[in-house]
Design a protein that fits this description.
This protein is α/β, with parallel strands linked by helices. It is built from eight helices and five strands. The longest helix has 19 residues, at 130-148. It starts with 5 loop residues before the first strand and ends with a helix. Bound molecules: shikimate-3-phosphate (S3P).
Length: 171
């Protein structure tokens, strides 16, 4: 049974995908992303799943993608920003950490996340007032990210390359 070398968590705009790709390049390991897995497995975009079936249906698909990736993938794994919300998914992530896994929280402030996110339709939870939504979402999730993290990097002033390099120094 495989175990990811690193799992990246954090809110939208923290750089989970770009840092994950860069880490994979630097380490020569594979990169996997649970949002992409959900879209591939369901044959639909994430925003369509949210629109047609709602957030809870998405979280169930996401949990299956997280469980599969945690046991099949031995490289770098990026999770969707809300993967820490579902208690059963969180239990899976906690088991990975308890087994010695490296869980990296990419921390970011609203002002640094805003230009990275772009606040468009592909972020179904950030409709209406995206800045306010992002802030509320981060206030709620911060303790969940912090509780799971074995490594935290504040990404605000760092390039993708600098974030990836710091993670490899800290893991
Ligand atoms: C979500 C974040 C998205 C995606 C979905 C829900 C969230 O991933 O999983 O739209 O709840 O924060 P990113 O964090 O990669 O944007």
């Amino acid at each position: 049974m495989a175990q990811p070398r690193l799992v990246l968590i954090g809110p939208p705009g923290s750089g989970k995908s770009s840092v994950g790709r860069r880490l994979a390049e630097l380490t020569g390991l594979g990169w996997r992303d649970t949002d992409a897995d959900v879209a591939t497995l369901s044959g639909r975009s994430i925003s369509d799943i949210f629109l047609d079936e709602g957030e809870q249906a998405f979280r169930t698909l996401e949990r299956a993608a997280v469980v599969a990736a945690l046991s099949e993938h031995d490289g770098v794994l990026s999770l969707g920003g809300g993967a820490v919300l579902d208690p059963a998914t969180r239990d899976e992530l906690r088991s990975y950490v308890d087994a010695g896994g490296c869980m990296v929280f990419l921390d970011v402030s609203l002002s640094a996340a805003a230009p990275r996110v772009g606040f468009n339709r592909s972020r179904p939870l950030l409709v209406g007032n995206p800045r306010q939504q992002w802030k509320a979402l981060m206030d709620h999730r911060r303790p969940l990210y912090e509780e799971l993290a074995t490594v935290t990097v504040l990404t605000d002033a760092l390039s993708v390359d600098e974030v990836a390099t710091s993670i490899l120094e800290l893991e």
